[in-house]
Every structure is written in C-alpha cells, then in structure tokens.
Amino acid sequence: xxxxxxxxxxxVVVCPRCNKECSFREDKHLWYCSATRVIPKTxxxxxxxxxxxxxxxxxxxxxxxxxxxxxxxxxxxxxHTWDHKTILDCLQFSSKTSVDWRSFCCEVLDAWFTNQxxxxxxxxxxxxxxxxxxxxxxxxxxxxxxxxLFGGIERASKKRFVVxxxxxxxxxxxxxxxxxxxxxxxxxxxxxxxxxxxAYSKLKELNYIHHQINHSQNFVDPDNxxxxxxxxxxxxxxxxxxxxxxxxxxxxxxxxxxxxxxxxDPTITSKNRVHYFLKEAARLYxxxxxxVRADPKAExxxxxxxxxLV
Length: 310
What we know:
CATH architecture of one domain: 2-Layer Sandwich
Number of strands: 11
Number of helices: 8
Strand content: 15-25%
Structural class: alpha+beta
Largest sheet: 6 strands, mixed
Radius of gyration: 24 Å
Shape: elongated
InterPro entries: IS1016-like_transposase, Tnp_ISXO2-like
Organism: Plakobranchus ocellatus
CATH superfamily of one domain: Ribonuclease H-like superfamily/Ribonuclease H
Pfam family, one: DDE_Tnp_IS1595
Protein name: ISXO2-like transposase domain-containing protein
CATH class of one domain: Alpha Beta
C-alpha cells in the first residue's frame, strides 16, 4: 500500500532528541536515528538509538489486520452496495472487527462532512435552499428534534455543501443562522439563486448577486427561466431517497448523509475515492503526531425520541 503517497504514513521523521532526520528500515517498518552526540562530562560519543514505528500516530498503529485487507474493506464501505455479510465471508473479519472498522470509516467521513470547502466565486452561479429531513414521529418527543439541512450547489460544476441546522425550532432558518453559513460556504461575488424566504433578503448587502423565485407562484421565473432552484431541489430529493432506504435507522442520519455526500461528490470519482478517504484519515490521525478530532455535532436523536424521515 502506498500509504506515504496518501499521507497516512510519514515520508520523513525527525528525531526529537537530536533534531536530525531518521533513517528508515522498510523490512521492519521502523524509523531509527543513528546520529552520535557528545556526552559533556566524559566527552565520549554516544549513538542516539532513537526508534519509532512507521505506523505510530496513524490509524494503522497497533493494527493486526494486513493493510491490503483494510483497503478492500474501505473500498467496499465507499461503494453503494455495502453488505456486512460480504465482509465477514470474503475478508474473514469477525463481526466485532467489521463493526469497529466501519465506525472508523464513519468517523473519517464525519470529519470530512464538518470540513466541507466553500463553493462559488466571482460570477459563479450557486443555488441554495433548506429542507426538512427528519421530525418527531407521531408528534412524540420534543419539537427540538426536527432536523433541517441547509446547502448550496454550483450549477456548472455541481460542487456543493450541506450542513445540518440544529438550533432551536423557529430560529433554525432565521437570518442570524443562515447568513453566517452563506458567508462561510459561498464565496463573495457569487450569483445566488434562492426561494423568497425572508432570511435571504439581505444577500445583496453582503456582496452577492441575488435572484429569488417565489415558489408559491412559480418554480421557474416565467420572465427569466434562469431564475430557479431546480438543482438544489434535485439534491434534496437524492439525499432523501438515500437516507430513507429500507433498513436505514434515523439515529444514524448523519452517518448516512456524510457517506452519500462523499460517494456522490462530483470532484471524487470511483478511481480516486479511496485516495481522498485516506487523505482525510491522515488528517484525522496524523502520522507521528497527536490525535486530531472533528468538531462534535449535536445528536440527531435523544433517548426516548423517535424520528421520522420526511
């Protein structure tokens, strides 16, 4: 596995004792320092002998599974046909091992989901919208458990972002919530198309070119057919189709959402999907470094509350 190419394993290790580059023994996956230093009292030279595993700090540290098996597992996880039984039969994983590594994969995609890049730019057309994706089933539980999504998509490249709105109901889609998200995820100077929701009324003051369509009257402006939000509406439909499949549990909503967005990202193809996943895993578990955790998100459900995907 070309783990160094993906950033999972280090290409250079500096000795923390003498601040010199270590040498690498590929047969033992070990970095070692053979530099010598002078002991002040005796004036004798002493070899540093610092050693560290090539896997130290990475997600491969203390992993007993061969890397090629992990690659097959990750590749299967990133497919549209995930099947737990296939992993058990073909890779001969135990059920616990499969669940543990699937949790790791979900953690990596969760980190990717919380660090989505901004889209748009000068003169680039972007559609943005919000949608309700989950609510309290049978009106049980607190109303706070409604889950709204807010997102945007470039018309030309189909690059997009999606974030969850987890604030208090009634304030999830207000101006104070949505405008900071727009400024964070949509670059200034973009041409934004949205519906006529009042929270978007100040976009022109934020250095955006803004066009609105009143969905209570038309879905496409009859006077200017370029004014519509059909692309973002299609994205919402695809997301809901994915997270409402048979067997999907609402308590894992964010996991399914992050997995779908990563797999269907237009900048990520089936050929480089594993590469981008490993690069994100390396960012989360930097080799020879400390642990980097993603910012925690609010829970979709709480004990006793049941959600219905809408």
